[in-house]
Predict the 3D structure of the following.
Amino acid sequence: MARTAGSHSDITGPRVLDAAMRLFARHGYAAVSMRQIAKEVGVQAGALYNYTPDKQSLLSDLMRRHMDDLLAARAAHRHPGTALEKLEEFTRFHIRYHLDRSDEVFIAYMELRNLTPENFIAVEALRRRYENELESILRQGAEEGVFAITDSRIETMAVIAMLTGVTTWYRAEGRLSADEVEGIYWDMVRKAVSV
Amino acid sequence: MARTAGSHSDITGPRVLDAAMRLFARHGYAAVSMRQIAKEVGVQAGALYNYTPDKQSLLSDLMRRHMDDLLAARAAHRHPGTALEKLEEFTRFHIRYHLDRSDEVFIAYMELRNLTPENFIAVEALRRRYENELESILRQGAEEGVFAITDSRIETMAVIAMLTGVTTWYRAEGRLSADEVEGIYWDMVRKAVSV
DNA sequence: CTTTGATTTGAACGAATGTTCATATAAATT
DNA sequence: AATTTATATGAACATTCGTTCAAATCAAAG
């Protein structure tokens, strides 16, 4: 018996997913070859198959992990309170979380069509659970009489689209800090859904 | 001399761009082969090169044409008026236009990274011109004292992201008509930027 | 040091890629 | 009917693709 601990797979394994994430985010899943990923890791293409059964699994693993992490992080931030308090918390959480992980977010939104049907269904279900968090906040606000909700599903999608869009233009070295961006978006979200 | 009029290229030419648009929107530029496009047109792959110098030109032509059409349509709708009137006009125009051309819009937002650097610069400049239309409306509203603008560039991007997001979930056969969707989004946009 | 087995290499596989081109087809002018 | 030329074919090109696998490598256990 040998090589149970201290083997390279502990190191190479994560690096494969890491390289795949960076390359998929930059060039797109279909445009990235297994050989490019291998080169980024510093290994031959054949070695990748010790860590993934195929290329498709790299993509679906990245997506599932992202959605799982997002849902877990969100659950950790959830507190009881008024709808307005919850909405502010959700807004600030969403922006902060997405700014910190622009690569994962980019992949999660751009590469859905490159998922196998079954993988797509699984990832879509996780995404739907996250969206439902916001929708139930908006519904609570409507019951409290503080939010003007015509169709809670549409308002949910509109708010999420607005918030997630921040990843397409925000640069850490840019004019505004993440805190300032958070504040501006929170102002807009609050006004957009308020009565 | 022969074949100046009535030749097949009048028919095949547009069909090539049309097939490319549909397939790029569905599967992504990198995932679509010239042979798939040819099959959709009902022709052999070699014949495509009577209508495009290469695959990249198909993408950049689609994008430029879309941005040109968008800017021209927008120019045709532009009227003098208050900032609020202009914003409503912009909002309704944007949603209506984007709902009618979901394939073009999808490509224009998803395939930017597959453009050659020079093509990217050209398309990005057109997109920027369109965004500037909205930004100047927001600035006018700030001067009039009716809009609360902290950073006009951010508010511009936020509004556009929210509006464009409608293409990701709207289905013509769905629960709501385009008119109803327009109305809901206009309510949200107006409130989001108002003082 | 030898053994053991996890890890990596490097070559090979068939299939698919974008593009080219000589050849064939067919429509419109002469 | 003969000629001309735009259009399309179908085979071929050099690469690259995802994936497999026997053989080499190498670190830890005995």
About this structure: The interface with chain B takes residues 26-28, 30-31, 110, 113-114, 148, 150-151, 154-155, 157-162, 164-166, 168-169, 175-176, 180-181, 184-185, 187-189, 191-194 of chain A (CB under 8 Å). The first helix of chain A runs from residue 9 to 27. Residues 1-8, 33-35, 45-46, 49, 54-55 of chain A lie near DNA strand D (CB under 10 Å from a C1'). Residues 1-6 of chain A have pLDDT under 50 and may be disordered.
